[in-house]
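Re: [help] complex structure
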Amino acid sequence: MAASSDKALNAPDLFSPVNVDRVSQVIVDQIKVLIRDGKLQPGDRLPSERELCQRFGVSRVTVREALRVLEASGLLTIRVGAHGGAFLTTPSAERLGEGLADLISLARMTAANVTEARFIVELGVLPLAVERATDEDVEALFAMVAEAEQALEGGTYNIEMSAAFHIRLAECTHNPAIEMLMQSFHGPMRMSIEESHLAAPMSRQGVEEHRRLAEAVKQRDLEAARDVMGTHLDRTAQRVGSTTD
Amino acid sequence: MAASSDKALNAPDLFSPVNVDRVSQVIVDQIKVLIRDGKLQPGDRLPSERELCQRFGVSRVTVREALRVLEASGLLTIRVGAHGGAFLTTPSAERLGEGLADLISLARMTAANVTEARFIVELGVLPLAVERATDEDVEALFAMVAEAEQALEGGTYNIEMSAAFHIRLAECTHNPAIEMLMQSFHGPMRMSIEESHLAAPMSRQGVEEHRRLAEAVKQRDLEAARDVMGTHLDRTAQRVGSTTD
DNA sequence: TCACGCGATATGTCATACCATCAGGCCGAT
DNA sequence: ATCGGCCTGATGGTATGACATATCGCGTGA
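Output below.
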């Protein structure tokens, strides 16, 4: 009963704005807060699903949907078995890239588009990489080149190894944001390259250029690095699309 | 039953490598493929949960978990009610930025890191933007500046408007990949800027620089654009962190 | 000492039921 | 004839209970 016209209406701030969210979404938010506030650290294990049910006072279905969302967001991984459960992931740029790849593959975005964007980033990264690379970084780069050369002879060289080199190069900047950028590129890149089945022809030349890049970083020779990267990407561009426009 | 040693094992390629994934994950992948192949267009509505159960031959819980994942990935939104259901979203980096913000707050990624990465992208974008900007693009840029100046006087200028300008600038390249790059930056950027509550001081100068940027694009003066953008970002860098290092 | 197996614990999946929400049409009152 | 409320069907949201599967650790026997 009770007509809606009542004295208490004078306080418009009162009355619940109505619970509009899904319960599972509320749980997701709640856990996100715990993570953001540091109450939950990477590597920590959440209580089991059944226990979470009791704690939140909801059914297992609801808890599971919340966990799915968190898992899809890359915040945690779920392991089955005896001492399994939901473990907070150590935040890594890698996970971000995975999520990006989906959306990128959706957008009407050609391989040429991606390559062009990569052009910008890879060239832009060079000054910082050359400037900040530590001895350890240089060593790692050369190690990867050596490994690639071996794989080349054994016929096991693949796109992944090339991508790994470029990512490692970005890591020389010691800037996680830049690493993330590079990683998020190589998901879609690999996809579009695999589509055109053109990986093989460039292998030898590509590895050779990687070596020269490593050398340039070691010598802190920005000009040389830019040169090599330019031709390196140029050929990639010609392979993935007729032109980068 | 069935010792693993059996005559048929000679053909290792045969026999199912065993279904190792979650069923819900398989469904997710399957729908992603449909989307990527264009069988499902943005705006389309998936069959109802109950119908999907029958089609896939799984239970409703499983379908729902798959939908949660897809929803969390920003691929679709779900509406309840009579003509509700799962509708494909138009792919936009905007949604992505929201999801990224969570992870970025986790990653040991500072605002300074992001700003530095942005430095690379924004400067790298300029040559393409200057070269490819159409009259329409230029017009839009000036319109945004004018709007910003008005908002400035009214005191309603905010970060969003600044971000919108930079994104519009990236659109001048007419490369969706680059647009997405820029968009995915401004989500996290805004967050870290809001944290430090330092939005106000730069407003007037920032808008002024935006105008000069628009002017440079109109004149196709790459050098000028680079200059302005350099100082523009420099000041941003000083605001968000003591240093970009 | 090693290996096998069993059990405990966790997630993965299923089937069913019921509730909440929304759109549209039906129907009665004005 | 029009407006309002009510009913109904379609759909997502949640709860419950059960069984299947994966994994680790421990105990026991060879």
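The radius of gyration of chain A is 25 Å.
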